[in-house]
Amino acid sequence: MLRNRKSVFLTLWLSYIVILIIPVSFSAVLYTRMETRMIENASRSNLAMLEQVRQVADNRLMDIDQLIVQVATHPKLQTMWTIEESGKYVQYQEAVQALKNIRSGTGFVDDFFIHLREQDVILTPSMKTDTNLYFNNLYVFPGLSMSRIRSELLGDYHFKTFWPVQQLKVDASTENVILCAVSLPLGDEQHIWGTLVMMIEDRQFFDLLKQIEWANSGSMFILDENDRVILSTSGSGQLPEEFRDEWLRAGNGYKKDNADLISFTTGKSGWKYISLVPEKVVLARVNDIKVWALVLLGLAVGAGTLAAYWMAYRSYSPIKDMMYALMKGKNAERPAQLNEYEFIKTSIAQTLADSEEAKEQLNAYIPVVRAHFLSRLLKGQAETAALTKESLAFMGIRFPHEEFRVMLVELDESGEFLREGGEWDWALVRFLFNVSSEFIGESGYAAEMELNRLALLLSVPESGENLGELVDSLKRVVEERFHMKIAIGISSVRSGLREASRCYTEAVNALDYRIIHGADSVIYYEQIDRSGRSYYDYPMEIESQLINYMKSGACDDALRLLDELYETNMGSGVITPEMGKALFFDLLSTMLKVIHALKLGEEQLPAAIKDPAKFVAAGKSAEDMLGRLKSLCRAVCDSVLEARTDQKDRLSESLKQYIVDNCAHNGLSLTSIADHFGMTPQYISGFFKKQNGVNLTDYMTEIRIRQAKLLLAESELSVLQVARQVGYATDIGFIRVFKKLEGITPGKYRETAQRAGSTKNG
User: Domain named GGDEF: which ranges (predicted)?
Assistant: First the structure.
């Protein structure tokens, strides 16, 4: 049976694959039918809404027909081309009133006018004017030239001729309108006396199209009876060429093409309404169902696979457990060519053969185990109550005395041999470990605590032991022979191995006082004066003064203030290390506030001070940290002074550019310029004079006269027009200023400039 194990697994696997294929196949068929049905329902729904839009649009277009009939049959308007010109003054007024009455009854047409060809007159519901004034000043169509308006819109014969959406500018507002033109009288192509032009805002149709579902996700097109695109929600105004012929041939219906759902219908007026909706929008719900179906199918496949696995291995459970236990112990996989029995036999033989090798490797790991135990013991993580002589002897540990003390040695990170972390620094610590182990001999053990710290656990006699000679020898060898500085903190003597962690804490506390005694000092815990004051002197007034000095770039004053604070707090030597660190970090916090307030980035600071907090915290003594704070203070002050010069130059250039850009406005003055830049007029005037050597008002006048000279020499504008274009309300003040600066009047200057230009061209 074991030899047929692989074939059994293959049979079970194929059986479950067949079972899984059945629901997958049904799901695929169901999804396909559901997707087709969903597209058909969506298409019918979209076409129904499109039909509603078409019906409303047809009714709206009938309003245009009613307006045309009212205008064409109105007696006051019909006489416009039958009365002589001398009698039309009164008739024009009556015609305008008639158009006003007709307009009050229209809602779909936003505005309209009548153009009389023979008189070249425009009649609107509110006025009578000529064609040039109407289209050039009152109603401007940027997309239609005047020649095109006269030839196409007002010149040809029209019977309800529509133009696509055109941009219309009325006063300061802009809107998009659809134009419809009808020649008057109706039906007379030979004797055309005028043209009725109606303007319909595109929002009239956009409001209808918004009623269609997915209108915002697709594209809508409206075509007139001549198959021109009158309106499009896509903004392109062009119907895709690959669909155009087929759509225009059909009356109405829907279809699916590539990745789009297409619906189209034709109105009574011959207009065609077309909707293009991406397939992914329509099938969004179907895709959600598909994702859930795939997730459920995946869960079913996973559950079926687990069930098959359990059923196949149920009879092999004892052998399987033994095999897994052996593989876990050996941390290896079973070879493919072996069955379970052969694998168990081979594993037992290999285990017996490896037992001797394991014993040898265990002896090699004892120093690592001992170092780990000593580290945990000093940190208070070892269960000292459960330690016995046998367990200590297993790790090669033997203490000759019951009293202990800890000596903590720290390498100075600024030493020439120490680098930015890595294996090189660990190698130095291991070297110091070996040197220290030779010095202490059998009276203690060394343990690596951190990257630059080494702890020596010493077993001393009950009467204590003088470590002066040991400490001096260790410092002399390390500093003189290897040029490395070390600081040493030594705890008091305590009884019992359980007190080792307390000794380590005392050594750490003693080592903290190196910020006061120096980076290479030896500090005994018994000699620490722990009666130091628990506060430092750094008043809020002094902090505000330091901030003001740095913000103003007064570097010397800021450095002097730092020296005074250091002397006040650290000179007496009674402050604790914790308070000393707190003082320096408080000073660092003040400088960080200034850096944040000035928005200084890394690019404004030297490379060594990219991270100010890390830079200052790296100091090993009070003098070192003070020097680093001074370096940071100098860098901030230098950045302030440099930024102040750049800011003045930028402000001066901004003032000049603002005057050049706004010299044409007659409201430009010293006060308006000061308001724009958020400053007082007195400051702006004095600053500009100091930076450029000329008064701001004189510079503004110079720019205006310079622009006026160009306009006088190169254009046909009148003196008044030139004066207004350069910011003068009247020509009187302009002429006075021009003559004062140039010595001649603007008219005389124009004559001289034009005569000089003629001579040059000749």
Answer: 402-527
How far apart CA 136 and CA 123 sit, in angstroms, is: 16
Among 135, 161, 164, which residue's Cα sits nearest to residue 147? 135
Tens-place pLDDT, residues 71-101: 888 887 877 766 655 455 557 788 888 888 8
Least confident of 148-152, 272-276, 546-550: 272-276
For the residues of 435-490, what is the DSSP string, one character each?
HHHHHHTTSEEEEEEETTEEEEEEEE-TT----HHHHHHHHHIIIIIH---EEEEE
Please state, as a whole number, how many other Cβ atoms lie within 10 Å of the Cβ of residue 63: 16
Q: How large is the greatest C-alpha to C-alpha distance in the chain, in angstroms?
A: 140
Crossing angle of the two packed helices 317-330 and 340-378, in degrees rounded to 10 = 50
Q: What tokens appear for 562 in the block?
A: 């730092």
Q: What are 454's two structure tokens? A: 């080494």
d(CA 628, CA 634): 10
Backbone φ and ψ for 98, nearest 5 degrees, come out as: -65, -45
Position with higher pLDDT, 557 vs 23: 557
Q: What is the mean pLDDT of residues 472-488?
A: 77
The CA–CA distances, whole Å, from 356 to 238, 326, 351, 352, 663 equal 88, 18, 10, 8, 99
> Residue 299 is encoded by which pair of tokens?
């869960």
Q: Dihedral, CA atoms, 114, 119, 120, 122, nearest 10 degrees?
A: -30
Residue 451 pLDDT: 63
pTM to 2 decimal places: 0.38
pLDDT of residue 282: 66
C-beta separation of 687 from 653 below 8 A: no
Cα angle at 78 between 74 and 82, to 5 degrees? 160
**Cα 506 from Cα 493, distance rounded (Å):** 10
180-188 long-range contacts, Cβ below 8 Å, gap at least 24? 180/64, 181/153, 182/68, 182/72, 182/158, 183/157, 183/158, 183/159, 184/71, 184/72, 184/81, 184/114, 185/72, 185/78, 185/81, 186/68, 186/72, 186/159, 187/159
340-369 pLDDT, tens per residue? 556 666 777 777 766 667 666 666 667 777
63: left (phi over 0), alpha (psi -120 to 50) or beta: alpha
Question: With contact defined as beta carbons under 8 Å apart, do 123 and 116 qualify?
Answer: yes
Interaxial angle between packed helices 423-440 and 468-476, expressed in degrees from 0 to 180 and rounded to the nearest 10: 140
Strand-strand pairing, 159-170 and 229-232: unpaired
The per-residue pLDDT for range 303-332, each reduced to its tens digit, is 766 766 666 566 555 555 666 666 665 555
Q: How far out from the chain centre does Cα 413 lie?
A: 39
Question: Which residues, in sequence order, are CB contacts of 165 under 8 Å at separation 6+?
Answer: 176, 177, 178, 202, 230, 231, 232, 237
Q: Of the candidates 432, 410, 429, 629, which has an alpha carbon nearest to the alpha carbon of residue 518?
A: 410
DSSP states of 547-592: HHHHHTT-HHHHHHHHHHHHHHHHSSS-B-HHHHHHHHHHHHHHHH
- CB neighbour list of residue 37: distance below 8 Å, 6 or more residues apart: none
Per-residue pLDDT tens digits for 376-421: 887 777 777 777 777 777 777 888 888 888 888 887 655 554 545 4
